[in-house]
């Protein structure tokens, strides 16, 4: 299976410029990108609530997290 993916590193300017990471999965899905490679430093929080919300946005958008 071929994957069309994006790394959060390529969004560094946008993420550091105010784009919330939680908005990224929906934007990816809208552009036909199905896989996200996430750089750990782009996570604004590692608390359980934030990670659950992030997992939910990935699932709702149909985005696979590449590990």
UniProtKB/TrEMBL annotation:
Superkingdom per UniProt: Bacteria
InterPro entries linked: Xyl_isomerase-like_sf
Protein name per its UniProtKB record: Xylose isomerase
Record organism: Kouleothrix aurantiaca
